[in-house]
Amino acid sequence: MSGSLIRRALLVVNPAARKAASREADAVRAFGELGVAIDVRHTHRAGDAADIAAAAVGDGAIDAVFTLGGDGTAMEVVGALAGGNVPVGILPGGTGNLIARTLGTPLGVAKAVRALVGGDAARIDLGVVEGSGIPARHFAFAAGVGIDARMIEETPARLKRRLGVLAYALTASRAILAGDRFPVRVVVDGEEIRRDAAAVMIVNFGAVLGDLFRFGPGIRHDDGLLDLCLFAPRSATDAVRVLWRLVRKDFRDDASLVYRAGREFLVEPAEPRAAQADGELLGRTPIAVRVVPLAATLLVPASGR
């Protein structure tokens, strides 16, 4: 499906997200300029985005669903529509906008609308994560335990409002330099791995922040697999070396890095720790993760633009 076939769409707005309310008018104006009839619905509580999207698609009167909010709002809609053919366009309206950034969507909302309406529909794998006290939920980018979860858990709201995604980077840098490591058991398709890790991530997309760096080699979002990226630096020097190698996309063997591709994963730290998926805190470990091949249809900017 091409974005040129979009004539009527639903826009799900989370007014509580960092930038959604201030960007709603610009988004609606951009849709109008492109000749797209847009139905705007606001969320009021967790779960609303999924319910709104599912009901609209069930009526059969729309060509696409767009979200304007954070990554949590986006994944509610993506999860609700998983397995279907109505594409989802993710507009940047939150703090991190991790999924929009990963897909190469412009961070200006009007530019994002134009890029997605005139873009392509891509089928991608999704992950499903669940655990004791954690209901099953989909993720598009990554689920993880360690530095990534600490970054989300410990970044103050006032700092996020002031600095946006930079606030997360500052918290992560402090955690890396502090050398926080934890014993963890990871099982990938039956293979057991034990390490003292700083971060354990199960990823679907390898590149982050506009391909500034990659988490590991050969990671694809449409191959029916997810990828374990386990980072186990033993010192601050190791941590700096690992970060530099990721920036340089240097994936030669390293004692501080473990990579495995697979379909089913168990992440079990020795002590319960916070877990996250696509920038949203889930609860405490252990967590189980599995892949659902080509489950989502997402709107992305057209290739070469």
How are the secondary structure elements laid out?
Blueprint: E1 8-13, H1 20-33, E2 37-42, H2 48-59, E3 64-69, H3 71-80, E4 88-92, H4 98-102, H5 109-117, E5 120-131, E6 134-139, E7 142-146, H6 147-154, H7 157-163, H8 165-178, E8 182-188, E9 191-197, E10 199-203, E11 207-208, E12 213-214, E13 226-231, H9 236-248, E14 257-262, E15 264-269, E16 274-277, E17 280-284, E18 287-300
Parallel strand pairs: 1-2, 1-3, 3-4
Antiparallel strand pairs: 5-6, 5-18, 7-10, 7-16, 8-9, 8-15, 10-13, 11-12, 13-14, 15-18, 16-17
Protein name: DAGKc domain-containing protein
InterPro entries: ATP-NAD_kinase_N (IPR017438), Diacylglycerol/lipid_kinase (IPR005218), Diacylglycerol_kinase_cat_dom (IPR001206), Lipid_Phosphate_FormReg (IPR050187), NAD/diacylglycerol_kinase_sf (IPR016064), YegS/DAGK_C (IPR045540)
GO molecular function: ATP binding; kinase activity
What does this molecule look like?
- The protein is an alpha+beta fold.
- It has two domains: 3-119, Probable inorganic polyphosphate/atp-NAD kinase, domain 1 (Rossmann fold, 3-Layer(aba) Sandwich); 128-294, Sandwich (Tumour Suppressor Smad4).
- The chain has helices spanning 20-33, 48-59, 71-80, 98-102, 109-117, 147-154, 157-163, 165-178, 236-248; strands spanning 8-13, 37-42, 64-69, 88-92, 120-131, 134-139, 142-146, 182-188, 191-197, 199-203, 207-208, 213-214, 226-231, 257-262, 264-269, 274-277, 280-284, 287-300.
- The strands form four sheets. Strands 6-5-18-15-8-9 form a six-stranded antiparallel beta sheet. Strands 14-13-10-7-16-17 form a six-stranded antiparallel beta sheet.
- Helix 1 crosses helix 5, helix 6 (147-154) crosses helix 8 (165-178) and helix 7 (157-163) packs across helix 8 (165-178).
- The protein is elongated, with a radius of gyration of 19 Å.
